[in-house]
Amino acid sequence: MTACTSAPWHRASFQRFLLRSLPDLLTQRVPLAGYEVEHPSEERCRVTVSVTGRGEDLIVTFDSVPTPDEYGVFLIEGERFVVVPQATDADLEAAERRAWELQLKVDAAKK
C-alpha cells in the first residue's frame, strides 16, 4: 500500500505568505512603492519589490524564488527541503496549519 503524502495546504500557506504576509511585513519596515509576484514555472516564482527612495524608486527583482511542490517540498540547488508546519492550537481539528505565515510572522516579531 502506498501512503498519500500530498500537502496542498503547504503550497497554500506559501502563497498566502507571498501574496499577503510578505508585502505586509515589507510595508511595516520600508516605504513600499510596489510589489509583484509572477509564476514563470511550477518550481520558481519571480518577486519584484519597489521601494521609494530619495526622489526615485529602487526596484529589486528576485528572479528564482523556490516554491513548494504539491508535497510541500522545495528543490533548491538540486537538494530537497521542507519547512516543518506548526499548528496554531493543540487541538489539531481546530488548528490552522500554517507553515510559512505563522513562522515568519513570529520570527519577524522577535526582531
Task: For this entry, give a set of tags.
alpha+beta; flat; 3-stranded antiparallel beta sheet; 2 helices; 111 residues; disordered C terminus; 30% helix; two-stranded antiparallel sheet
Structure write-up:
With 111 residues, the chain is α+β, with helices and mostly antiparallel strands. 30% of the residues lie in helices and 34% in strands. The chain has one domain. It contains two helices and seven strands, in the order αβββββββα. It has a three-stranded antiparallel beta sheet with strand order 1-2-3, covered by helices on one side. A hairpin with a 5-residue loop joins β1 and β2. The radius of gyration is 16 Å and the shape is flat. Mean pLDDT is 79; it is low at 102-110.
Summarize the structure.
The chain is α+β, with helices and mostly antiparallel strands. It is 30% helix and 34% strand.
